[in-house]
Design a protein that fits this description.
2 copies of one chain form a homodimer.
Chain A: E1 4-6, H1 8-11, H2 27-32, E2 39-44, E3 49-51, E4 59-65, E5 68-73, E6 79-85, E7 90-91, E8 102-105, E9 109-115, H3 116-125, H4 127-153, H5 156-171, E10 177-178, H6 183-190, H7 194-206, E11 210-214, E12 217-220, H8 223-229
Antiparallel strand pairs in A: 1-2, 2-9, 3-8, 4-7, 4-9, 5-6, 5-8, 10-12, 11-12
Chain B binds a DNA duplex (30 and 30 nucleotides) through residues 155-156, 182-184, 192-196, 198-199, 201-202, 214-216.
Chain lengths: 231, 231
DNA sequence: CGGCATGTTGAGTCAATTCAACAGCAGTGG
DNA sequence: CCACTGCTGTTGAATTGACTCAACATGCCG
């Protein structure tokens, strides 16, 4: 596994090219540049676990390339994926000392990571760092709140429409999105079975609302109609 | 509407009696005692709106007596309640400037409130305050993550069992819980219809797992079996 | 080229919903 | 005091959206 260590002064050179941050500012970048904060690069293979639910929270991660799913399991194996993390996204931030979800690479993934210990230290003296940590957690919370509405009250088609628009916004570069995750992952994210996801996508294809290049390469042909289906 | 203003020095006298905080520490209390932070009391009537989705976030609230629901609506009226807030709980904390859910009193409710403006000011100079704000948001996030698992993957009976154990933990004082919310609220919290909630409760009653004093006064008779049903 | 992962589609089933009727209770006013 | 009214909760019957189970198609990797 390839590992590289970057000290604060050189970290700026690592800024991810061609990625528009979801946030107007880049809280992770702001933190990573603090004196005393050391960022490291690390690579995970497809399906490799980054951390497990209940494990001590030792690092904060930012995805450079690839994708990560974070999820919870029930004892009988039923799984709920809480979020997909894509290039530029930060994950693994847990004010409590233990992770509350498991994180796994969906595809081969490169992350930048910062020890929690140095974050705590930076936050203790630098109010702006503390504020950024809060902002990042709040961002996760907003997503979770929206997702509860989806899981509790939307129909299968509405869920898939919402998913497509979310992914389109987050990873479509050229009008085409290359989904890193399989149908089962999408189902476990949307609270559906993989078959139901597949049927909904086929139906949207039949209606001309989207077009497949391959099963995971999708272009939206009518965002307006899709937005109307989102409920 | 009765309003009372408390300055920091006297705020300690207002500590809510006979309420065990969900957290080992009391972040709200810690913040409310900061110099420059002024807490006010306010009363909302049953079904009165505390704030609406999209409104500017001006206050942080702590419930003294009563109960509040926070929810999101779809355009056709479908509702997802994200959380119930009970005495001692803090709600309305939003790092962004706008509320992302609507808050309504479930019954006549007394809250203590602190202006957001003074929080920002306190957090800018006091790292401990900043840390407490982060901790409170993280607490909301944890609940949301657990609730996504419930909404996406649990059966109706498992949802109701989880709900009963949550409420038992949070408001049972004498082995009896007095639910402030109606069946429709419970359904909208659990992603079910009110009829399904009612049927599940009746079934638990028939099985001797709980006992009704009235429709909203419930005593758990077998927490172990209920925990086993939680999945 | 074969073998396994992944994805699609069909048929039948079922858990939860919808629609409907009724019961219980609280508050109101004669 | 009791009928009246509205609201909340329960229960039954029929429906349905999503699931389960199954077969087959596709595509990728060695």
């Amino acid at each position: 596994m390839h590992t590289r260590t970057i000290t604060a002064p050189t970290a700026k050179a690592l800024d991810i090219p061609h990625v528009v941050m979801a946030e107007p500012t880049d809280p992770f970048g702001a933190i990573a540049h603090c004196s005393g904060v050391v960022a490291t690069e690390y690579t995970y293979r497809k399906d490799e676990e980054v951390y497990g639910e209940g494990e001590p929270s030792e690092y904060l991660y930012q995805i450079i390339r690839g994708a990560v799913r974070t999820y919870k399991l029930l004892s009988d194996g039923r799984r709920q994926i809480g979020a997909f993390h894509l290039p530029g996204d930060v994950f693994g931030l847990d004010p409590s000392s233990e992770h509350r979800l498991t994180a796994e690479a969906i595809v081969d993934t490169i992350v930048r990571l910062v020890p929690r210990r140095s974050l705590e230290k930076a936050a203790a003296s630098n109010v702006q760092v503390a504020r950024n940590l809060w902002t990042m957690t709040a961002c996760d919370l907003r997503h979770a709140e929206d997702h509860m509405l989806l899981l509790g009250r939307k129909t299968a088609m509405e869920r898939v429409a919402t998913f497509l628009l979310e992914m389109d916004r987050r990873l479509a570069k050229t009008g085409m999105m290359a989904l890193p995750m399989c149908r089962r992952d999408i189902g476990d994210y949307l609270g559906l079975t993989l078959e139901t996801v597949s049927r909904a996508l086929s139906q949207l294809n039949d209606q001309g609302i989207l077009m497949f290049s391959s099963a995971r390469e999708i272009a939206l042909r009518n965002r307006q109609r899709l937005t109307a289906m989102e409920a």
